[in-house]
Amino acid sequence: MTTRRIDQIWLFGGLTLAILLVIGSYFLVIGPKYTARDTVQNDTADTVLQLAKEQKKLTELREQLKSIETYKATLVTAQKALPYGKTTNQIPEFLKQLQALGIKNNVDVSGYGASAPQELKNTPAVSELPITLNIEGSIDKITTFVKELQTEQPRSVLIQSAKYGVNEDKWTLTLSLTAFITTTQTKTITS
Questions:
Q1: Would residue 157 be called left, alpha or beta, if left means φ above 0 and alpha means ψ between -120 and 50 degrees?
Q2: Is residue 59 included in any domain, yes or no?
Q3: Where does the chain have alpha helices with state H?
Q4: Which segment of 48-52, 63-67, 97-101 scores lowest on mean pLDDT?
Q5: Within a domain: residue 127?
Q6: Residue 7 lies in a domain
Q7: Hey, how many other C-beta atoms are within 10 angstroms of the C-beta on 12?
Q8: How far apart (Å, rounded) are the C-alpha atoms in residues 10 and 166?
Q9: How many domains are there within the chain?
Q10: Is residue 131 classed exposed, middle or buried when 0-12, 13-18 and 19+ CB atoms within 10 A define those classes?
Q11: How does pLDDT run across 127-158, given as a tens digit for each residue?
């Protein structure tokens, strides 16, 4: 009877050891593999989602690229309105534009005076340039000149004050203008 009992103890001991080996191997070997698989599947799902977002952005950028010429034209217009000026502040070019505008409207544009640029407090990348300008001609032509100065010429200009006078048939208008420049240089685009 003792031999049978020893065989039963060995049998139950062997079964217990086998069960412990199966459970231990599951927690030590198989369980971490499932966890690693789940992590990889989650990462793959996140990557697929990110890829879909990036493909959508790429599609939007391709659509915007079709309008690149419009964007370039807008940039050229903005650069003309608010030019970059570090040394000359673009004053000579602007005065030439004013003279050409005066010739176009048959008025005499003279008496230029420009002050040092002053940085704007609310917009640190933009400086204002006070300019004084004298215009002589008939009242209709001066009015046309001022309208074109404010609406058609490309440079961003603000009229601060205006004084007029008349001498015989010639009207004289003295304008105090503020032209603007930027201290941020952008790539120059030619259209």
A1: beta
A2: no
A3: 2-25, 31-65, 68-81, 91-104, 139-151
A4: 97-101
A5: yes
A6: no
A7: 10
A8: 127
A9: 1
A10: buried
A11: 788 888 889 988 888 899 889 888 887 877 88
Q: How far apart are CA 105 and CA 186, in angstroms?
A: 33
* 20 found inside a domain: no
CATH number at residue 158: 3.30.70.60
Domain of 105, in residue numbers = 90-182
- CA–CA distance, 111 with 8 (Å, rounded to integer): 121
Residue 4 pLDDT class (50, 70, 90 cuts) = confident
For 155-176, how does the pLDDT look when each residue is reduced to its tens digit (9 = 90+)?
Answer: 778 888 889 888 877 888 988 8
The pLDDT tens digits of the residues spanning 8-17 come to 888 888 889 8
Q: What's the CA gap between 26 and 30, in Å, rounded?
A: 5
Tokens of 91: 């004053």
